[in-house]
UniProtKB/TrEMBL annotation:
Lineage start: Eukaryota, Fungi, Dikarya, Basidiomycota, Agaricomycotina
Record-given protein name: Uncharacterized protein
Coiled coil (residue ranges): 114-172
Comp. bias (Polar residues): 17-35, 52-66
UniProt region (Disordered), positions on chain: 1-66, 300-378
Organism: Mycena albidolilacea
Length: 378
DNA sequence: TTGCTTATGTGTGAACGTTA
DNA sequence: TAACGTTCACACATAAGCAA
């Protein structure tokens, strides 16, 4: 098969070929027709017939053109060293018209190759269609996804707006809290704790269980702070250094911000005073603390007191009575009248003390009538 | 049951402001 | 300036609650 060449080299044989050969191109197909039977069926009409009519007009030229075309197709499609070509060539080896036969065989092979290529193209086309449809589906999906994206963007924008609103409200609340700290100061009640007012109530923590718990928490914390501030509870509160007091107040305000509401830390002060007073009292009673001689008279007074005298929470009653008295005093014109009233109250008190020892502690100017409703509870 | 803590009432003296 | 009233601080007494 080394002699196998492209058909261009042998074109001259065709051009110089005798007319018998040229004319017998079709009749001489006896052998070829047998060989080419399957392909001739494919070319029953169309290109086969056209070539035949062209050959009748100028067979040599047509053959030359055909050879060129086929040769170009062979260059593109046929492997000259393939086994199929080898076997075909051997069959026609000694035939005079071998080149023509070979040309047709090559032509048929080229057609076959074209058909195969067409089939491959069709397969590729189908694959391309599939890809196109897939791409179209992707585009459709992208289009369908757009509304979701828009919705998401809207939700994000709404979220951002809400966040801004929350932040603004928080700022507003913080400002309000600061204002509350400044504006809602509770002044110290008149009198002394336990005698004229109740610390817990005046602190506004006498409402419910939670208030009570908060009050107790603050109170216990103040006790701890008293020791942590190295305050000498064996001495009267008045003798406590101002620096130690201020330090204690500052820490107390930090631990319990509610204490800021009470002017000049009166609540803190009252709690600590009450604590160290009771602690000293306990020490005197137990004997591990010596009472100053200046307070001996209190012991004497206590001995004179009637132990059967009833005790109870009278602060509120006395306070309300005082308010009523002040209102009455405001109505009264002239100081003489007020003085007269005071004297009368004292006289009433003296009367009460002489009549009923149990009311001897009613020091705040309570008349007996005004006090009856209270004592009725005992 | 006991001991401690808390809350409240008591009387007194001192300091302070107001008034005659 | 003295008298008076108010407020404050102090200790004592006691009831009630709570925990060991």
């Amino acid at each position: 098969m080394e002699n196998f060449k492209l058909l261009s080299d042998s074109t001259h044989h065709l051009q110089d070929a005798p007319s018998s050969l040229k004319d017998s191109s079709e009749p001489s197909h006896g052998q070829q027709q047998e060989y080419d039977q399957p392909h001739s069926a494919k070319r029953a009409s169309g290109r086969g017939k056209a070539v035949q009519s062209e050959n009748q007009l100028n067979p040599a030229k047509n053959m030359s053109d055909t050879l060129k075309t086929v040769n170009a197709r062979i260059k593109r499609h046929i492997d000259p060293y393939s086994d199929a070509m080898d076997s075909k060539f051997e069959i026609i080896d000694n035939d005079k018209t071998q080149e023509i036969v070979f040309l047709r065989q090559s032509h048929d092979l080229a057609d076959l190759k074209i058909l195969e290529t067409q089939a491959a193209n069709e397969a590729l086309q189908k694959e391309l269609d599939k890809l196109k449809s897939a791409a179209a589906a992707g585009a459709r999906f992208a289009q369908e996804k757009n509304p979701l994206l828009e919705e998401l963007e809207k939700a994000q924008a709404a979220n951002a707006t809400l966040r801004k609103k929350v932040q603004a409200l928080a700022d507003k609340q913080r400002i309000h809290d600061v204002d509350s700290d400044v504006n809602e100061n509770v002044p110290r009640p008149a009198g002394s704790a336990g005698n004229n007012f109740n610390i817990q109530n005046e602190m506004g923590l006498g409402g419910n269980t939670n208030d009570r718990e908060q009050y107790l928490a603050i109170m216990r914390n103040m006790h701890d702070l008293t020791h942590q501030a190295s305050i000498n509870w064996e001495q009267p509160w008045a003798k406590t250094p101002a620096g130690a007091k201020e330090k204690l107040f500052a820490v107390a305000r930090e631990r319990h911000p509610i204490l800021k509401h009470y002017e000049n830390d009166w609540a803190t002060e009252e709690l600590v005073k009450q604590y160290i007073k009771n602690k000293r009292c306990h020490g005197y009673r137990k004997g591990f603390l010596e009472r100053p001689a200046q307070y001996d008279y209190l012991k004497t007074n206590s001995a004179k007191r009637n132990p059967s005298a009833p005790r109870g929470p009278r602060v509120a009653v006395r306070q309300s009575k005082k308010v009523a008295e002040k209102k009455a005093a405001a109505k009264a014109k002239g100081k003489s009248k007020a003085k007269l009233r005071t004297k009368q109250v004292v006289e009433d008190d003296d009367e009460s003390m002489s009549d009923e020892p149990g009311l001897s502690h009613d020091r705040g100017g309570l008349s007996r009538q005004g006090n009856e409703s209270f004592w009725a509870r005992y």
